[in-house]
Specification:
about 160 residues; alpha+beta; Cytochrome C Oxidase, Chain F; 2 domains; two-stranded antiparallel sheet; 5 helices
């Protein structure tokens, strides 16, 4: 291998690109050239050349604002936040139980056909979980409390 490289370095027709590719890589070939002390066009093989880095400054006016890039649900959330609605999904609002009778059930809002509801029955530490369906009518919990699903428009 070393005789091939030495012949390549002496040849007139060897391209500079091929020689630089063979000598700049930090591997077995580079260590072999270092041990042999073979020169190449432009200097010793032991001194690897680094490529220059070119950078350009970015102007703030060239950057795109977030509201121009977002789409879908994230865009709707961002528009609602600009209007002052910090909780469009109602996660921080706890639905308090009403009277819970069959003729006056607790209304649970949902934009879907079903919703998972947890009921804290009789001072239990853990809630009792149940699915409330859209066209099912009032659903009764183990404690006797009734819930019903109400359709609301999605965000």
């Amino acid at each position: 291998m070393s005789s091939y490289i030495s012949r390549l370095l002496k040849a007139q027709s060897a391209s500079k690109r091929l020689i630089s590719n063979l000598t700049q890589r930090d591997g077995k070939l580079s260590s072999l050239l270092r041990r042999l002390g073979l020169p190449w066009q432009g200097g010793a093989a032991a001194a690897p050349q680094q490529r220059p880095i070119s950078t350009t400054q970015v102007q703030k006016s060239a950057l795109i604002a977030d509201d121009q890039l977002v789409t879908g649900i994230q865009k709707r959330e961002m528009l609602l936040a600009k209007q002052g609605c910090e909780d469009p999904w109602g996660f921080t609002k706890v639905i308090r139980r009403g009277s819970g009778r069959e003729n006056d059930p607790t209304v649970v809002p949902s934009a879907f056909d079903a919703r998972l509801v947890g009921c804290l029955c009789l001072d239990d530490r853990l809630p009792k979980w149940m699915w409330i369906e859209k066209d099912e009518g009032p659903k009764r919990c183990e404690c006797g409390h009734y819930f019903i699903l109400k359709n609301v428009p999605p965000v």
